[in-house]
C-alpha cells in the first residue's frame, strides 16, 4: 500500500544504505561515486515531492507501527520539507564538486585530501606524499552520506530524542570529515570542534531527560500539549537547556568562538557543507522548539525572547567585526557566517508569523549562498594557490569567470537589492519595525549596520583578491579551475539567483510554513490523526 | 520529599550530580585524554539522569510476562539510555583516536591555542599593532601623508595648470581622502 508516509523514511534510509554500500565498495571509486550521487539525487527528488505534499498538511510516518507515544514518528511539515529540499540540493552540489576536485588532483583515492593539505606547512610535504598512500580516504563518500542522513533525520524528527540522534549522526560524520587526513592543523582545529560539540550534545541530552521526567514524553506534539501544565520554572529550565544546546550548534554569539577557528582548516567542500548546513540544523531546531514547544504568549516566554534578541544583536555585531579584521578569505567568510546566524535568531526572537517567515526564508537563502561562497573560495584557492588576501590579487583579469562566481553570491550575502539576501533582510526589518519595542528598533539598526559591514568586509575581500595588483605567483601559475568543480559552484550560485527570481512563491511558502508553525495546532493535529496519539490525553507518564 | 516521589533512589540523583561535577572539572583540562575522561563522566551522568527520568524501578517490561500486580519499569527511558550509551561509546572511540593522533604528531595531546590567540600572542610579544596599513607598509608613509601629498600636487598642478604628477592611479583614490587628510598636517 502506497501512501505519502512511505516517502518519509527515504531521505534518512537511502543515504545510510548508500553509505554502507560505498564503504563496502571502497576499492571501486567509480561505483562509489555513482552510488553516492544516486542516493543524494533520490533524497532531492523525495524532498521535492514532500515539499508539494507538505503544503497540503504535515505528512506523518510512524516507524514500525508503534503508536506515537512509544514509537518514533517522522514528520514533514512545510518547514521540514523545505529545509530538506535545500539541504539535499546543497549536498548534491558539494558532492559533485568534491568528486571533480578528487579527479582534478589526479587520483581517485585522495579525493578531498588534495588542496587543504598542500596549503599546510611545507614541512609536511614529504610526510604527506607518503601518508597519502595509506590514508583511508575512501571514507569520504560514506561519511558524507552519513552526514546527509543525519541532516535529514534531524529535519524530519518528530520527537526530541530522535532529533538528538539525528544531531549525533551528523556530528559524528562531521568530526570525521573535519579531521580527514589527520594533519596537524586539522587535529588542532578538530579537537576544539569535537570537544565543544560533545558538550553541546550532553547539554541537549540533559534537556531531553528533563523534558521526559517533567512530562513523560519526548514526542514533540505531545510535549507541546503537556508543557503548558508544567511548573513554569521547570519549563524555563528545559527551554534554556534546549537553547543552550542548540545555541552551541548554531553558533549564537557567546557560544560561537569555536566556529571561525575550526571550519577554515577543513578541505573546501567540507567547509562549504559545514558552513551551509550544520549551523542551520541548529537554527532549525531553535525554530522548531521555540515555535512548537514554547509558543509566543506562553508564560515566561517573553523574557527569553528578549534574551534571544540581545544575543542576536551581539551575534550579528561581534561576528561581523571579526570578519572585518580577517585577512584570510576563509576565516572572513566563517565570521560572516556567525554574524548572519544573528539575523535568523532575530527572526525567531520576534516570535510572530511574519518574522518567522522571514527567518525561514533567510535560512534557505543563507544555506545556498554561504555554501556557494565557500565553494567559490575553494576555486580561488585552487587558482591563486592561497586563501590569504594579502597574497592574492588580479584574479578579475586572470579568471573573469571566477570573479563573477564570487561577486554574485557575495553581493547576495551583503543584501544588495534585488537579491534574495535583501528580500530576507527586508522581511526581518519589517517584522522588527512592526514589533515596535525599543529593543526591536535597536536590533533593526544593528541589522542594517551588520549588513553594511558585511558589504565592507566582502568588498575588501573583492578588492584584494580580484583588483589588487596580481602577485607574480598568481600570474605565473598555470593552475586552472577544472570545469567539473566550477559547474557545481555555478549551479549553486544559480540556485541563489533562482531564490531571487522565484522569491514570491518561495516567500509565500515560507509564510505558510510560519503560519502553521505559530499556529501550532496543525502539527499536533496531524501527529494525533496519523500517529495514533490519543486525543487530549491527560496521563503524565512519569506519574504512573 | 515530594520531589523525589518518582525517583528510584536519592543515591542515583546524587551520583548524577557527582558525575557532572567531576566531569565538568575534567572537561576544563588542557589534555585531550582528560577531556575525554570528563566527557565520559558527564555523558554517563546524562545517561543516568535519563534513567532517573524513567521513574521507579519495577518488573521487567516484557508484555505478558510481568505480574500485573507489580508495576513494570519504564522501557522507553531504558531504550533511550541504550541508544545514548552506544553514541557515547562511538564518540569516545573517536576522541581516543584523535588524542592518539595528536600525540603522534605533537608528542602530547594538549588542545592547542587557536589561530587568533596565537596571532595576538605573537603580536603582543613583539609589541606591534594588530593592524598595519597596507599602504604604509609599501611606501613607508601613512594614508594621511600620502593624501596630503596628492592634495599638494593637485594644488600645484592647478596653479601651474600642468598635468598632475606621476601617481595618476592613486590620485583618484587619494583625492577623496585629501579633503580631510590634507588639512591636518
From TrEMBL, chain A:
GO BP annotations, alphabetical order: ATP synthesis coupled electron transport
Transmembrane segments: 6-25, 34-54, 79-97, 134-155, 161-180, 192-214, 234-259, 266-287, 307-325, 332-353, 359-380, 401-419, 439-459, 486-510
Top-rank taxon, per record: Bacteria
Subcellular location: Cell membrane; Membrane
Keyword line: Cell membrane, Membrane, Transmembrane, Transmembrane helix
Keyword Transmembrane: yes
Keyword Transmembrane belongs to the record: yes
GO molecular function terms noted in the UniProt entry: NADH dehydrogenase (ubiquinone) activity
Name of a matching Pfam family: Proton_antipo_M
Membrane topology designation: Multi-pass membrane protein
CC terms in the record's Gene Ontology section: plasma membrane
Primary subcellular site in the record, as a coarse category: membrane
Residues annotated as domain NADH:quinone oxidoreductase/Mrp antiporter transmembrane: 157-450
Family, per entry: Belongs to the CPA3 antiporters (TC 2.A.63) subunit D family.
NCBIfam families per record: PRK12665.1 (NF009308)
Protein name (record): Na+/H+ antiporter subunit D
Species of provenance: Xylanimonas protaetiae
